[in-house]
Specification:
This protein is α/β, with parallel strands linked by helices. Helices cover about 25% and strands about 15% of the residues.
């Protein structure tokens, strides 16, 4: 796979066009929603902005959209309190060290969720079924992974502003990524040189890189710097993403566009603008503006559901949402074989560093770290489950306000969106079909969805 974009002249021409589109999109969003002051980056839960009501679900055991997968609508949850022994303070070493996060316990959880998603008794068989199911849905036939095919992995490294250990920054745990890489190499047969771990606008931290690069010679680690052994993310100008409203155009990195498959690994946390950030929003680290700068600020006006955010007043239910375009594009959702949510150390919001305040009070966590991993083939279903956990945790629920599940409605019903948007992010002339299934559980004690109850064709939450 090359990491080259078009010529400088073509790139600058595209930059000019892209810049005009971004400006137009921001003017449109602000004209429709109003302009507000930037949100402060804090270290505590955010209360609901004045005049904004707490989030109240409406689709309780009433599925929207179309479930899919080996076991349609299945979301798997593994929970093991022995995985986390960090004291919440020490950073010499920090939470990311094996002395504080038990690699054996986390690896066992990874294996459990993979086997349950794949509905198989072994990791190898589960992966084969996952790849085969994906290829069948993509019209490639009943075939599994073939040697030479490239796999991209997008962890959430949002708080990694350097290559160091990033102190108590919240990001996907090395103890989760390493066993996943081992399974891909040893069980699936992917050559290390065909794996690309990336975040286009942040840094691959040393806590992962130092171990993974040593264990997997030739594996690619792509980030915003391209220094200290990492490769620099480069925009592919040939496969643009254009938002279905606002005319804003973005570009993906070549490490993603050159891959056949994608694994999306998000963190579990609230968000100061979108109320929560899990798998759908993880892709804000997957694209650029035309001039190569981070595109995330220019999509914020199209995903905001909270007042006081960066550049837009809160959206209402039934509004266009840019996360649908971002996740419905052939280069993102169109390549994703597996969604994982790292909830080993959940944190309160996107800028909240890990601390003892991040321990959850709700059951079954009961004052401990969340110590969990979620996985699914369905990105809508897994984000729906994540939302139910977040909105029912007292330390985070003040951040989860406004119509946070609006994007899930729009994704589930992309072919007949409540906003009446014709979502077509690749400008193919063919609007998106449903991207998955959405509903809310019956209650926070039983945590049952329609398939658990036998009442509908929605989500099935399984404990592994």
């Amino acid at each position: 796979m090359t990491c080259k974009s078009k010529s400088r002249r073509q790139f600058l021409q595209a930059s000019l066009v892209g810049g005009v589109g971004i400006a137009a999109g921001l003017r449109l969003a602000r004209a429709q929603a109003g302009t507000t002051a930037p949100a402060a980056r804090g270290g505590s839960p955010e209360a609901a902005p004045a005049g904004q009501t707490p989030f109240t679900p409406t689709e309780i055991n009433k599925p929207l959209g179309s479930a899919f997968g080996i076991k349609p609508g299945r979301v798997v949850w593994a929970h093991d309190p022995t995985a986390t022994t960090w004291d919440g303070t020490t950073n010499t070493p920090g939470w990311w060290d094996d002395s504080n996060t038990n690699p054996a316990a986390v690896s066992a959880m990874v294996s459990k969720v993979i086997r349950s998603v794949g509905d198989a008794a072994t990791d190898k068989d589960a992966w084969n079924k996952i790849f085969t199911d994906f290829n069948q849905r993509k019209g490639k036939g009943a075939v599994g992974y073939k040697k030479g095919e490239k796999v991209a992995i997008k962890p959430n490294f949002n708080q990694c502003r350097s290559h160091g250990d990033n102190a108590n920054a919240s990001y996907v745990a090395p103890q989760l990524i390493l066993p996943l890489l081992r399974q891909l190499v040893n069980e699936v047969g992917v050559a290390p040189a065909d794996i690309y771990v990336y975040d286009a606008i942040r840094n691959v931290p040393s806590t992962l890189y130092d171990r993974a690069a040593k264990e997997f010679a030739g594996m690619h680690f792509v980030d915003s710097t391209g220094t200290e052994g990492r490769e620099k993310a480069v925009a592919d100008m040939t496969k643009p993403l254009t938002l279905s409203k606002g005319g804003v155009t973005f570009y993906f990195p070549t490490c993603l566009t050159g891959a056949e498959y994608l694994i999306n690994i998000a963190g579990l946390k609230g968000h100061t603008l979108a109320s929560m950030t899990v798998c759908a929003k993880n892709h804000l680290g997957s694209f650029f503006n035309a001039n190569g700068s981070a595109g995330a600020p220019n999509i914020h006006p199209f995903i905001s559901v909270k007042g006081g955010g960066r550049g837009a007043a809160p959206q209402t239910a039934g509004s266009y949402n840019g996360l649908v375009d971002l996740n419905g594009h052939p280069q993102t959702g169109g390549k994703t074989i597996l969604y994982i949510v790292d909830a080993i150390y959940a944190t309160q919001h996107n800028e909240f560093r890990l601390a003892t305040a991040c321990k959850w009070t709700s059951a079954p966590f009961n004052g401990h770290w969340t110590s969990s991993i979620f996985a699914s083939q369905d990105g809508v279903a897994i984000d729906s489950v994540a939302l139910d956990f977040l909105r029912n945790e007292p330390t985070i629920s003040p951040t989860v306000t406004g119509p946070v599940d609006n994007y899930l409605h729009e994704m589930a019903l992309a072919d007949k969106a409540p906003s009446q948007t014709a979502y077509d992010p690749a400008k193919s002339g063919k609007p998106l079909a449903s991207l998955g299934v959405h509903e809310h559980w019956n209650n926070a004690t039983e945590k049952k969805y329609s398939r658990n109850l036998g009442t509908g064709q929605g989500i099935e939450l399984i404990t592994a």
